[in-house]
Amino acid sequence: MADLTDTTGSFQPSPEPAAQHNGRKGVLMLSGAVLIALVVGAMLTSAYVREKGGFGNALAPFLPAPNLVAVFGKPNLRVLVMGLDDNWTDNDEVYTAGSRTDTLIGVNVNLADKQISVLSIPRDLWVYIPKDGYGKVNEAYGDGGPQRTEATVVKNLDVPAFDYYVVLRLDATKNIINAIGGLDVNVEKDMDYDDSWGQLHIHLRKGMQHLNGEQTVGYIRFRHDPEGDFGRMRRQRQVVQLLARRFRDPSIALHLPALLAVIKNNIRTDMPFGKLYDLALAMRGVSPQAVHSSVLPVEIGWTNGESVLFATGDASKVVHQYLVAGYGTQFDPSNVHVRIENGSGTPGAASALADFLRQRGFDVVDTGNASTFNHPTTTIETADQKVAGEVAKALPIKNPHIDVARVDGVDVVIVVGRDYRI
Hints:
32% of the residues lie in helices and 27% in strands. The protein has 422 residues and is an alpha/beta fold. It contains 11 helices and 22 strands. Helix 1 packs parallel to helix 6, helix 1 crosses helix 7 and helix 4 packs across helix 5.
């Protein structure tokens, strides 16, 4: 990206002196729609690469991976991903003039180890916008496009300049699913919710459903139940896996023209095609465990009577880890999403094991009962043998049974057996 003036400076977790903090911590997470959008972007890139590569690219699975360090001339690649919100007229027509970033994500790719670090920057973060003054970070795009947004992130978070940007309309999620003819989803519960102002209408029935794009987005955005964001994150991961499987189906080639239309209308990037091709080719087959994600630590405060977010004292460390240093190939338990089922019949066994694993960094997203309580041995179910081994080492159980098989919605399912003692 082109250099701009006023793009350097020290890390600034606090705004101008007029702002006041209220001290309450805000725990923010990537929304389901955001992660789906990122996955969609990767899938669209692959489709674009296949089409532009011609028939010879049918051999892509057998081609050697290019040396990405040589391609980009550096060990790390930094990309700023911006998801634009839509504005609506009084006649319910969409327009994009003056759009803000509904999503802002910094991505740091270790080109040698193929490890990806993803840091979400909350849209209401109070920052200094170069050439414009103080405001929320999502306002920078409307003030000066992707370059102004990059300048704002670089100045306020004290990170090196980004190499490229990706601008993504969040409608891409809906459009990509429509382009492939919909998605078969096992809807977990009846869902009914209407938000006319936000153009969100969710009316789904429990059970296996063939959902179009709008219905799928509604399914992953629904949070009006006791689970709130935790249920939404679980459904988001479920849909991510369904999309990934759908894109491995050879019949997806029949939808390539529609997919390319989605690229044209929903994604913009300044990365040259040749480098985009090499990146997609080299990163094929990267496992979910190679993607490390976090959210900038923030606290809720007020300025000029407006509720905003301020970066906390821990933010500098998190920014350095994800956008500067990055991850090596070490195992990262926070990137393993776990569901624990009680198959022992001992009350509270699943919850106790969940607490144990959370203390060791694992992301336990759900607990419940197994289909029966007749499990003598604790079982680890996962499609990744390496992950199974790491989980087994972390458990306070000797010789758990490992079942390498596909699981839905999470990376690992642990069925607690009678060999586990609370």
